[in-house]
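Cont'd.
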Amino acid sequence: MNPAHYRSRLVARAVWVYTILIAFSLVVLGPFLLGTLTSFKDNPLEYPPTLSLPKLDPGNMGAAYRLGVAGGGGGFFGELQPGAEVPFEVSIFTPAGQDVVPPVVQVLRLQPGAGIGAVRDPVYAADFATVQDLKAGQTVSAQRPDREGKLQDGTITRYTLKVVYPHLTQQQGEKVRARTPKTFTEDLEAVVGGQVVKVNLDTPEAQQQRTNVPADTVVSLIKKDGQYYLDGPIILDRTPLNVELDRGQQLTDSTLPPTKVERFGRANFFNNITPGIMGFTFNNYLRAFRESVDLETGNSIFLRWVGNSFLIAIVKVLTSIAFASMAGYAFARLQFPGKNLLFVLVLFTMMVPMQVTFLSNFLLLRDGLWGLSKLFGLPNFFNPWGLIVSGLVGSAQVFLMKQFFESLPRELDEAAAIDGASAFQSFWYVTLPQTLPAIATLAITTFQGSWNDFFWPSVVVQNPASNLTLPVGLANFRQAYAGQGDYGLILAGAVISAIPIILLFLFFQRYFVESSVGSAVKG
Amino acid sequence: MKRSLLLAAALLAGAASAETVVKLNGFAGADVAIVNDLLNKIVNPALAKDGIRAVFEPLQGDFNAALTNALSSGTAGDLMYIDIFVAPGFIKTGKLLPLNGKVSTKPFVPSLVKAFTDTGKVYAIAKDFNSLAITYNKDLFDEADVAYPNENDTWSTFADKLRKVKKALGNDYYGICLPADFARFGAFAFATGWKTFDSKGNSNLLDSRFKEAFNFYTGLVKDKTAILPSDLSQGWSGGCFGGGKVAAAIEGAWISGFLRDNAPNLKYGTAPIPRNDKTKKRGNFIFTVGWAVNKDSKVQAAALKVLDQLTSEKTQQFILTEGLAIPSRTSLQSNSYFNKTTQEAMNAKVVFEGASDGYVYGYSFKQYGGDWMTPVNAALQAVMSGKATTDEALKKAQSDLNSVMKR
């Protein structure tokens, strides 16, 4: 056996092992990666599916930033503010022998698609902004394929236009950003610094627009001599633009790529021409937060779901550590009658699948644990508290801690006992400080289990929507948006929900591995 | 002293503003927007003087499963949607309040009242209804230079038009989007005179009339004129149609709201479901959802008042003009909205007329519910994807169905 041959065999084996590992991780991570990519798409259901992502193209992101600035809301969270002039360009191909006619461009009045976001009465950009100065620029001759793919001669004309949102008042003064009250009032009012103030409509345009300013809307006011004048509502949602061409013409280029092309390329729809980077690239993520609002309070409910999931997971982690370490210590170190029977019972609860016990647990929670919930003013435990109460500690966790305690040398406890320590002191001062790795393992697995748990929370927390945990909330997204084919938003929510677990895994991989090995091997 | 005064004032204020809250359960999705609009604009202002406030709590996930769960755990609302499809099952639970003597059913379309009646008792009031129609993409027909579908079409002339469109536009385009679902296919089966349950209560899938419809429907897919929504990565034929690559779809009035949001530039028309060549009749389904009152509700009287408002003329007028569904009150069926020429209004008119033209049956399957459709849908799927012949698939479906109905 010559050493060179041996080395090459070693290298070949390493290559094989790595190839297999990489293939395996791609298979496992594939759905997550594709889901993440798809969450950036405008049309997640596009057919055939492509990997081209105009949303992540730096050129488009730059354009989105500049348009966001032009709209007045800044380059990240675009808005359309009074006084904004948004420049836009489109290039249009006209086949030879056809008249070069300018496109019909208009700001569309579109309701949000579906889900809870469609509830709010939005401010429509179409009511306030108009398209002006549509001008033809240079024309160059070019060739483009037609619908059958045959090249045809023609010309490409570049058009410039502006979307203008005129001020509704002529007054000059300090700009104030405020909100209209939650209920609609005949005379326009706004909340400035906690005070409700009257807003003057000093131009005929402003008076005509009164009905287009709904309750609970962000408005821009001009403050002059202690009086407030309506400058106009601030359009947070979007400025949709439609560019319609003649039959045969094609759109070849535009400041932003069109969101939807219909009617054989005749109708080109831009979902938002003042997006800013967040509104363009991360639009689905923004919508996940913006469109999931609590109908009662109007606050984003997505954050509530994240908060509920965190609260439940963290409380469960703390109680699990407390109870499992104490119970584990008792099983490992103390002698008392019926210990083995008790331990078998604990193991038995591990062996019964959850689907068997969930009905009896459900009934217990329905009665609020024999009425205990009434002490906290709850008629039953069908709320996040019920999830906490039913998951204080699990038998698997007790088992894990017991095994770990048994792997520690008994001599330490005996030494503590000789020094006159009680059982609890010996547990608290001697044994527990040595079990940090086991406790870390316990914390991580409990957190992960609680964060990803779906079945039990979906049974326990139903209503109101602000009570849900994140996985159940995402299922509710599916109900609200999947019918419309709006999977981008659902995937965005799913990506957000995966982030904590991914971080946890990156930082604590070591303990994940240990949890499966450490509890089984007695040192 | 000061503090106790404040406390007393706060308590008094609380007592003065005490209101009865009535909770409503319904679908999530687009209904959230619609029902809340109704509550804010019509129902709550009308009931403010009685100190009643209605709150909509949509149920997440699979609505019927969630409602079953909520009813059994006692967390269900005071009023809830009941779909005609599952009404028999929910009525049998005994959790719904019989409405006889509490609500007058006279102003409503009789067939819709019947849909929610069991042994002479009415358990829900239809909030609206829907049927099926052919929605077609005008641009595709224009581009292909083929006449639009119309009310004189029979199965063969309709299929002919679709084939011509497909031929003219080439491989990226399809004539129609057909799901493997009895909820759409049933309209063709009924047109032949076939019934879901014969006089003895049996379902015969091997009937020659059922086969005729089955062959027509699956044949369109076999010769590539039609495509399954899933083959265009869509969940339903409305999404398929909204993509602009399919010339027609079979859907109800709900498609117009969807298209307004998702395909703002799509120019579409609506035609009735084509007639069967032999019987010269059309077939159709009636889809309806009713409002039912929870028998265990603590605020039954208030819930009934809210129910009155939810099914009032004013509410139904609003639902109609928003292009959401067809009102269930007979008085509204001569409404001027039906004569408007917008594409949404024309769609509503065709859908409305479809509910009383030819062999029309409610979308429900006795106590079997969705289980009845499972074998039939499996047969459609098998034949449309080329995995089985019609005879094999129907034979299997018949035996599966027999075991479902024996349970």
